[in-house]
Design brief:
The protein is an all-alpha fold. The protein is 70% helix and 2% strand. It has a two-stranded antiparallel sheet.
């Protein structure tokens, strides 16, 4: 088995000095000879093959390392989404219009609102699981995750349909003349209205999806309910039950073979 840095570090930190019966790294190493002794003992442990204790440790370290990495990736995935969303909102809030009769300013503001809604709707078809598990290989770095958020893998046909649906929903909820009251709002009010507008537009597209009149790129209720993750959870639960039963069987065998001292 390859030895990871995390596994080597854990073994080194939990190796006991036979001379002092204390962990080697509990205090600073006093000499090069002591350091060499630690390396030799730790290396000997790492070379062990087939021992339950070491194999269990390998699996635990691998799991912990993978969990930390995925937690970092997921936080970055959400962070990029939030950062981009806030960037669109800032552009809208800071878009200067001289008045409600400023045609060019209102037109520019409307385009920025449309871009914001389009970004939010493209994110509806993207979740973290799809980002790390997808055809051709999942995202294995922070840069790859950033690229997935900024450039979702959406076909041109679906993207064009999403643009038309978002434009139609926006026009029905907030036509251009309706931007005049928006221009006069305070910054917190604008941010609140933008998020509410985003939810309404997405809601319209979800409703159209259910009625068979739109919702391109959105998963239907049936697709969400029958997601493969449900099967995975069932399989994992069965594996956990079998593993627990197997551990109990081994424990009972050891108790029978080694006497009362195993009862504690």
């Amino acid at each position: 088995h390859p030895v990871t840095e995390a596994l080597a570090a854990y073994v080194a930190h939990t190796t006991i000095n036979p001379d002092t019966q204390r962990f080697f790294l509990e205090t600073a190493l006093s000499s090069e000879a002591e350091a060499r002794k630690l390396v030799d003992i730790a290396a000997g442990k790492l070379k062990l093959e087939g021992q339950a204790s070491m194999e269990t440790l390998r699996m635990q370290i691998a799991y912990d390392s993978a969990y930390v990495q995925q937690e970092t990736f997921q936080q970055h995935f959400q962070g990029v989404q939030n950062q981009e969303t806030n960037g669109y909102i800032d552009e809208i809030v800071n878009c200067e219009t001289r008045s409600g009769n400023d045609f060019e300013g209102i037109t520019l503001l409307y385009k920025k609102i449309f871009s914001f809604l389009l970004f939010r709707n493209k994110l509806m078809g993207l979740n973290y699981a799809q980002a790390i598990i997808r055809p051709g290989g999942g995202a294995g770095s922070l840069n790859a995750i950033t690229n997935i958020v900024l450039n979702p893998n959406i076909s041109n046909n679906i993207l064009s349909t999403i643009e038309r649906e978002v434009a139609a929903a926006l026009e029905s909820v907030l036509p251009r003349p309706g931007l005049r009251p928006f221009v006069a709002m305070s910054t917190p009010e604008k941010v609140s209205q933008l998020m509410e507008l985003s939810n309404i537009v997405i809601g319209i597209r979800l409703y159209n999806k259910e009625t068979g009149k739109g919702g391109a790129g959105l998963e239907s209720f049936e697709q969400l309910v029958s997601h493969p993750a449900r099967d995975l959870i069932n399989v994992l639960n069965k594996e956990v039950i079998l593993t627990v039963e197997l551990c109990e069987d081994y424990t009972n065998i050891l108790k029978d073979n080694h006497g009362p001292e195993w009862e504690a």
